[in-house]
Design a protein that fits this description.
Blueprint (H helix, E strand, L loop, with lengths): L1 H12 L3 E9 L8 E9 L2 E9 L4 E7 H15 E8 L2 E6 L7 E6 L24 H5 L14 H17 L18 E6 L5 H13 L4 E7 L2 H13 L5 E5 L15 E8 L2 H12 L3 E7 L14 H4 L2 H22 L2 E7 L10 E7 L5 H14 L10
Parallel strand pairs: 8-9, 8-11, 9-10, 11-12
Antiparallel strand pairs: 1-2, 1-5, 2-3, 3-4, 5-6, 6-7, 12-14, 13-14
The structure holds S-adenosylmethionine.
S-adenosylmethionine binds next to helix 5, strand 9 and strand 11.
Length: 390
């Protein structure tokens, strides 16, 4: 029993508890059949909601962290025989019997910590209701910080993007300037195919103005009018280390042969994504965030007798080619020494272009990934642009 109490104490003290459920009654006469515990934030303080399941109703009470262990002990000793504990680092299945020693089965974690807020209101890095100069200038919010309804999806996407950026910060070289001196090398970032640059401005604002990092950010796009517009806003807002250049991704080269630390490319069409990835790897970028779209290249190349009956349907061929293109890109990045995850960028209800290739440099090249890439290429008879990455 002591071991069980120790596991529970650890999960409370280290705030790793995601869900705890008690079931299988010791005595049939007990009023509540099961009890479930979940963390929640109450006025900024981590508390635990205790949910008691009676035959015909469910009741709740909220406890402070330090009040939980005595209750858990009582429930284990007096009420229940089975405990399922889900923590950030592991899952535990515990069976308590009156006669034998308790059985504790530890498994790898299956749950992640949810966003903790009692009213489930999402906490954004850039909250609605706070005026941000660039969001006002780009027409996303009014002067008081209220987000315009028609731009809410964009606002959510900007915050989602910043959340992903915040997750990859530990993989970027440490170039923070506590006292904002200019002497230190900046963190160099390029946003390829920046368009109207909502996300480029957001990135600059977050890294430079919120986190006080020394950054130098370039947004590149084919469109002259868009570039002029973005440069005008950057100048007005005195975002001095943010500049916009007109040009084609495939032809872009860094003037002074300076390597780039992070490459962003969001919705740059078709093979423009491949050129962005190739450049990123050749610079040795520590982080690559890429949301591909319009993956048309393989559509007319793909051929495989077994799969012909499926791929004869244009829409299936199109969707499959998008998956294959990004899968091959991911393998190529792994071969080149990146750890790759495919993460959901925007909710599917807003756009189907919602998969982000998130790659962080480990330097561990993977010949096995390269071999898988070659076998897939052969199987599908395709020759994607990402092949130029050698
Ligand atoms: C759909 S917009 C995305 C804008 C922005 N990245 C975003 O996600 O909000 C795609 C942008 O990529 C630019 N683009 C496409 N191909 C490009 C290329 N080869 N070189 C530079 N820009 C390109 C287009 O001009 C367009 O502005």
């Amino acid at each position: 029993m002591e071991k069980i109490i120790e596991i529970l104490r650890y999960s409370l003290e280290n705030e790793t508890l995601i869900k705890l459920s008690f079931g299988s009654l010791r005595k049939k006469s007990n009023l509540f059949k099961k009890t479930i515990v979940r963390p929640l934030l109450l006025q900024g303080e981590l508390c635990y909601q205790i949910e008691y399941h009676f035959t015909n109703k469910v009741t709740h009470s909220n406890l402070k962290k330090e009040e939980c262990l005595p209750l858990f002990e009582e429930l284990i000793y007096d009420t229940y025989k089975q405990i399922n504990l889900f923590c950030v680092d592991a899952d535990y299945q515990i069976l308590v019997s009156n006669t034998d020693k308790p059985k504790i089965i530890k498994k790898s974690a299956t749950k992640t910590m949810p966003q903790l807020a009692h009213n489930k209101e999402k906490k954004y890095i850039l909250p609605d209701g706070t005026p941000f100069d660039f969001l006002i200038r780009l027409g996303v919010m009014d002067n008081s910080g209220k987000v315009f309804q028609k731009h809410y999806a964009k606002f959510r996407q900007i915050n989602r993007f910043l959340e992903i950026v915040s997750d990859v910060l530990p993989f970027l070289p440490e170039k923070t300037l506590p006292d904002n001196k200019k002497s230190q090398e900046p963190l160099r970032i390029i946003d390829f195919g920046c368009g109207k640059a909502y996300l480029t401005f957001a990135l600059y604002h977050y890294l430079k103005l919120i986190l006080s990092k020394n950054v130098s950010i370039i947004g590149l796009d084919l469109k002259t009018d868009v570039i002029d517009f973005c440069n005008m806003i950057a100048e007005d807002l005195k975002y001095e280390e943010l500049q916009f250049l007109e040009g084609d991704i495939a032809e872009y080269s860094e003037k002074a042969n300076i390597d780039i630390d992070m490459v962003v490319t969001l919705h740059a069409c078709d093979t423009a994504t491949d050129y962005a990835l190739i450049k990123a790897v050749n610079w040795g970028a520590s982080v690559i965030l890429s949301v591909p779209c319009c993956q048309h290249e393989l559509f007319s190349q793909i051929s495989n007798d077994l799969h012909k009956p499926i791929l004869k349907h244009g829409i299936l061929n199109e969707r499959f080619c998008a998956v294959l293109t990004d899968g091959l890109r991911g393998l190529k990045l792994e071969e080149q020494g990146y750890e790759v995850s495919m993460v959901e960028f925007a909710s599917l209800e807003h756009t189907s272009k919602n998969i982000m290739i998130r790659a962080v440099k480990t330097g561990r090249k993977s010949a096995a990934a390269g071999e898988k890439y070659r076998r897939l290429k052969e199987y599908w008879h395709v020759n994607p642009t990402i092949d130029r990455l050698v």
